[in-house]
Design goal:
With about 300 residues, the protein is an alpha/beta fold. It has one domain: 60s Ribosomal Protein L30, Chain: A (2-Layer Sandwich), CATH 3.30.1330. It is about 25% helix and about 25% strand. It is built from seven helices and 19 strands. The protein has an eight-stranded mixed sheet, sandwiched between helices. Strands 3-14-13-6-4 form a five-stranded mixed sheet, with no helix packed on it. A four-stranded antiparallel sheet has the order 16-17-18-19, with no helix packed on it. Helix 3 (about 100-110) packs across helix 4 (about 135-150) and helix 5 crosses helix 7. The longest helix is centred in the middle third of the chain and has 14 residues, at about 135-150. It starts with a strand and ends with a strand.
Amino acid sequence: MPLLIQNRGLDRITSTGELFDKHPHLQENARTFRSMPLVDVDPKCLLYVQQREFAATTPADNSVSVIGSGDATTCHLVVLRHTGSGAVCLAHCDGSCTWSEVPLIVKAVTSLSNVSKEGRLELHLFGGFCDESKTSHKLSLNILAAFQKQKEDVHLETCCITEMNDIVVDGNHSPVVYGVGVNVKTGDVFPSSFTHKGPAEELRSARTFTGGQMADIYDSSRGLVKIGPCNWSPNLDIGFWLSQDDDTILKYLSTSPMAEPPHFVQHMKTTIQFLLEHPSSDSLFPGGQPQLYHRTERGDWERAVQS
């Protein structure tokens, strides 16, 4: 079935501008979302999703109250929720393989939902801006087209993407909303910022940096974050970047150099340093097993000991 807007199938569109012209209520919803106050999410209840990751859970989860993701410039944040079961998934999509990623997102929610239960799948999209290379615009269209191809009915509720997520500051375009959180108990979605991006932030960033594909990082039935096993080979040449100035790193390692958050360069250097310290990924995954993390009573993520 097609993607549905106000219970009607979405016609083929050639631009996000056309989408917003045909459905002005989506513009209004996006403006409302943009104007909401930024929530600084408490790490003790948060499951943070990095680029090229997704996570899904249900309201019954005792370890996670909010799934969130940030630092999206041209990337898009996809929230899909089943209104009957309350099952919800958040994905951080960068356009690397959208057509194979969207079915994973849909399956993550439907597999946690009782198919006979009342309710429907509702989609909320965030991210992108009016970047010069139109990377955001292409990703917006690809995500919409990929959801159109799914056999399940999916209702597009919020669409704060590309031109509806754009602001011009000192002559430069940048996103209004860089991060969102979803309350897994209520389904409320809100603009968010995050001080904590763990567990295993550097390892997960290294996985993406070395070309890792979209990964499901959470086992909701056990309340465990699972990372890897990842696979990369030694590449000492990347040490070159550590001696470069900030502008060079932004120019070559970002899709949107003028719109990155202030910590982008340090984040890239930390990731590269991690890869230099762990030239082979094998040592990080003894026996080829993933790293597992569980929530402690204090609210921290702690490495689980595997027998």
